[in-house]
Design a protein that fits this description.
Blueprint: H1 8-13, E1 23-26, E2 30-33, E3 36-37, H2 47-56, H3 62-73, H4 83-93, H5 98-107, H6 116-134, H7 139-150, H8 167-176, H9 183-197, H10 206-216, H11 221-227, H12 236-245
Antiparallel strand pairs: 1-2, 2-3
Helix pairs in contact: 4-5, 4-12, 6-7, 6-10, 9-10
Length: 275
């Protein structure tokens, strides 16, 4: 909650100084990362562990970090047909830079249907539903209300096929690590059971599994949103590289005859009068 006062004095108090509780860089000396010396206290962290610590300020066990690693690994597909990878591939095909291509591809990964937008709605649904059930609501009623309001439930169903190849390995890993007994995961699986026996026939998708797992790990919606940012990243450089190695412009070329143009018919252009 934002409790800052909203008047010019707030700006005046911050003129000429940057106040931070996150960290600071002291050139030639050291770096502070959330109150710790990055090159001394945190030097043995792997990159994911440091990334999650930067987001949450919390330390996680090796088993929890192993599960988080898999959430990224299991969804990094080097398939240029995927909506975000296509951006990376087109960047390579047009001879843009790798950084611009990756940045643009990650930006469109926020897509509301295929990307992180679905994950955020899944988290919201699970949090609201568990709270309603604690207040005495039945799960069937919660599902009915959600379907009436949104015509779908985030985390269930898939636009292409009604199955998700990531569910089995991720759930098996969670079980092997003893991280499959959280209340949100139990709720998510119970929702899937209800949807499968009802007329909807919707199976859990990736968002439907990852959302409860991370909430059971203590992530807030904003923390999960930031954590999931690189989830597709490992699959993007191969798409960029392969498109870059092929002749320029040969990825997804479109013939003029294939474009359904409904504007003005062909017309003659005249040079503007220089006078």
């Amino acid at each position: 909650m934002n409790t800052y006062k909203n008047d010019p004095s707030l700006l005046q108090e911050n003129v000429g100084i940057v106040k931070s509780r996150m960290g600071a860089f002291y050139p030639g000396s050291h770096v502070i990362f959330r109150g710790h010396d990055l090159h001394a206290d945190l030097k043995d962290m792997d990159w994911l562990e440091l990334y999650v610590f930067g987001i949450t300020g919390r330390r996680y066990t090796k088993k929890q970090l192993r599960l988080m690693h898999s959430m990224w690994t299991y969804t990094s597909y080097p398939d240029v047909r995927l909506w975000n990878n296509r951006v990376a591939g087109l960047a390579g095909s047009s001879r843009s830079t790798g950084t611009l291509g990756m940045a643009a591809a990650l930006a469109v990964s926020e897509a509301s249907i295929y990307g992180r937008g679905s994950d955020m709605r899944a988290i919201d649904f699970l949090i609201r539903t568990l709270q309603q059930m604690d207040e005495g609501y039945e799960l069937d009623e919660c599902i009915r209300q959600e379907l009436e309001s949104h015509r779908s439930i985030a985390g269930y169903g898939r636009p292409v096929v009604n199955a998700d190849e990531r569910i089995a390995p991720l759930l098996a890993l969670a079980q092997s690590l003893g991280l499959d007994q959280g209340p949100y995961l139990r709720l998510a699986l119970a929702v899937e059971e209800k949807l499968l026996v009802g007329r909807w026939r919707m199976k859990m998708n990736y968002a439907g599994l990852v959302a409860p797992l991370v909430v059971d790990l203590g992530f807030s919606p904003r923390e999960y949103y930031l954590f999931s940012f690189p989830a597709f990243l490992a699959g993007m450089p191969p798409c960029f590289i392969e498109a870059s190695d092929k002749p320029e412009g040969t990825l997804y070329p479109a013939a003029c005859a294939d474009i359904q143009y409904q504007g003005k018919s062909r017309r003659r252009w005249t040079k503007p009068d220089k006078n």
